[in-house]
Specification:
The chain has 18 helices and 19 strands. Helix 10 (317-325) packs antiparallel against helix 12. Strand 4 and strand 5 (125-129) form a beta hairpin. It has 543 residues and is an alpha+beta fold. Strands 1, 8, 9, 10, 11, 12, 13, 14, 15, 16 and 17 form an 11-stranded mixed beta sheet that branches. A 4-stranded antiparallel beta sheet has the order 4-5-7-6, covered by helices on one side.
Length: 543
């Protein structure tokens, strides 16, 4: 790693030597990692050779189990009102349904629990009819009362639901009859149908009786029912045989191994113990691609810098800008990410339909960085950079330190697990955070992606920007855009917001990721890589 953060330009040969060295270090632990995963698979019920993707056995029989490698741990519960971690959100997309869901790969809306897309009674009133015969995993029917309850609990400020910021346009949700619900909006909102996907429908009786139990073992109406979930180990699902929706499970069982160790995850796929893995380490992309099907999909998912704007000198945008200009992001992408990323030239990734090149683009300009610090009257600045221990972030963090050291800002890395680092953030014990983020798991419209970071919890209790003049302006423009039915006007307003965010940079992307997903195409049919974190096995069968 030391030669990769050299202040000198890194040659192709140097990168190659580093890859070889890191590859050797990975190989020293490969046998142990593969053995550990094999034991875990065997202990999960059924022989390891029965895994979808296993090359063992030679029976040619179709597997009854999909096995997958997940890179993120299970650090929270599953309640869809509050779950935001990559793993529970991905699991919930199999366990729960919304009235309208988004296709996991294309991100286009389709009726899920609803029989059809919402019917507009007038510009601020919609009606939705439930799918006949839909049942929760305890066998109880899905009713209009459950739908009203699911939305009311999200909208209730006392519940502090993370989903509330996605539906601020809702005035009321009421039952019309046993299978029909009416939505009244505060104002006409053109993205209403898509936004319904952010609220999953839950059984009122079970949630009310035991909220904590429901959070630990959720019950939905989706094609897969949760059997058990063990943090840092695995999540076990089974097919919900009574599911009558558009996307029934095609295999009886599914197991997700929570394998944060990258070597173990890769070896599990190569050895046939799992049929698909997410988050292939960038250093392993070429070797995995030579053995399995692999695709890197451009995503909104990004690595961002976030500043504590209540602490000097980070309350001055010139300091925040300086630290962005100091970064050699092209070098980061090519060296640490092996080309699997896009330097941020706007808040959204270039493949997004609403991409806008920001008026402020942070090219590598150390001289400008120094000048901005001087103009802000800042000297002798040193930084403790709080960051997470995610594999690909670990490869980038030393290069951020190198860039800031080079402009005379000595930097110390404080690396830890996400839960611990965000505990510091939320208790105001940080100055600068480098971390990954991907709200596109909830939706891809620009309003949602901006509001996740710039409305609600993040500006209020994390980067502490709430109430500043730019913050007020951003939220006013977002609200104005939400209320217009004219696409061109809405786009113009969003672009203004993204220009302000780029200029102010209290939280701003450094790079947008490409997400390498690998799978055994001979073991799975219908599998598609996603433009978001996580994996999806909707419509997927074993071969």
């Amino acid at each position: 790693m030391l030669d990769r953060v050299s202040k000198d330009a890194i040659s192709r040969d140097a990168v190659s030597r580093d890859v070889d060295r890191r590859g050797f270090l990975r190989l020293t632990g490969a046998l142990a990692a593969a053995a550990a995963v094999t034991q875990a698979v065997a202990a999960c019920g059924g022989p390891a050779s029965n895994a979808a993707g296993s090359r063992g056995g030679g029976s040619g029989a179709k597997s009854d189990t999909i096995r997958a490698g997940i890179s993120y741990s299970l650090s929270s519960g599953f309640d869809p009102m509050s779950a935001s971690g990559a793993t529970p959100v991905a699991a919930n997309n199999h366990i729960f349904e919304a009235l309208v869901d988004l296709d996991p790969a294309s991100r286009t809306a389709y009726p899920a629990l609803a029989t059809a897309m919402p019917l507009a009674v007038n510009p601020t009133t919609y009606r939705v009819t439930l799918r006949k015969g839909a049942t929760f995993h305890d066998g109880s029917p899905v009713t209009a009362d459950d739908v009203v309850f699911s939305f009311d609990r999200v909208l209730n400020p006392a519940n502090a639901s993370l989903m509330a910021e996605f539906v601020p346009f809702l005035s009321s949700v009421t039952k019309v009859d046993a299978s029909t619900v009416e939505f009244v909006l505060r104002y006409a909102f053109p993205l209403f149908a898509d936004r319904l996907a952010t609220v999953k429908i839950v059984p009122q009786k079970l949630v009310t009786a035991d909220p904590k139990g429901f959070d630990a073992k959720p019950v939905g109406s989706g094609p897969w029912a949760l059997v058990s979930a063990t943090p840092n180990d695995k999540i076990i699902f089974k097919k919900w045989d009574s599911y009558n929706g558009h996307r029934p499970a095609k295999v009886p069982n599914m197991v997700w191994y929570l394998t944060s160790d990258a070597t173990a995850r890769v070896n599990a796929l190569i050895s046939g113990q799992t049929a698909a893995i997410e988050d292939v380490p960038y250093i392993d992309v070429s070797s995995v691609q030579s053995k399995e099907t692999l695709q890197s999909v451009q995503s909104f998912g990004n690595l961002f810098l976030m500043f504590n704007c209540s602490v000097k000198p980070y309350d001055d945008k010139r300091v925040r800008q300086a630290l962005h200009y100091a970064l050699d992001v092209d070098k980061i992408v090519q060296t640490a990410m092996f080309g699997n990323g896009t330097p941020s030239t706007g808040y959204l990734q270039p493949t997004h339909p609403n991409y806008h090149r920001a008026a402020t683009v942070y090219s590598h300009d150390p001289a400008k960085a120094k000048a901005l610090l001087a103009a802000a009257g800042v000297s002798n600045l040193s930084i403790t950079l709080t960051t997470t221990n995610t594999d690909w972030v670990n490869d980038i963090a030393p290069m951020v330190k190198e860039s800031w050291d080079a402009i005379g800002v000595p930097t110390t890395l404080d690396i830890g697990d996400s839960s611990g680092q965000y505990a510091k953030v939320d208790s105001d014990r940080f100055t600068v955070l480098l971390a990954p983020g991907d709200p596109s798991v909830f939706g891809q419209d620009a309003d949602l992606l901006i509001r996740w970071f710039y409305d609600g919890q993040w500006p209020t209790t994390r980067f502490r920007w709430h109430g500043t003049a730019p913050d007020v302006q951003v939220r006013a423009l977002l609200d104005q855009a939400a209320r217009t039915s004219d696409t061109a006007t809405r786009t113009t307003l969003w672009n203004q917001v993204m220009d302000i965010i780029a200029d102010q940079a209290p939280l701003y992307p450094v790079v947008h990721r490409k997400l390498p997903t690998a799978w055994d195409a001979k073991a799975l049919s219908g599998f598609r890589p996603l433009p978001t974190t996580g994996l999806s096995f909707l419509d997927v069968d074993t071969a």
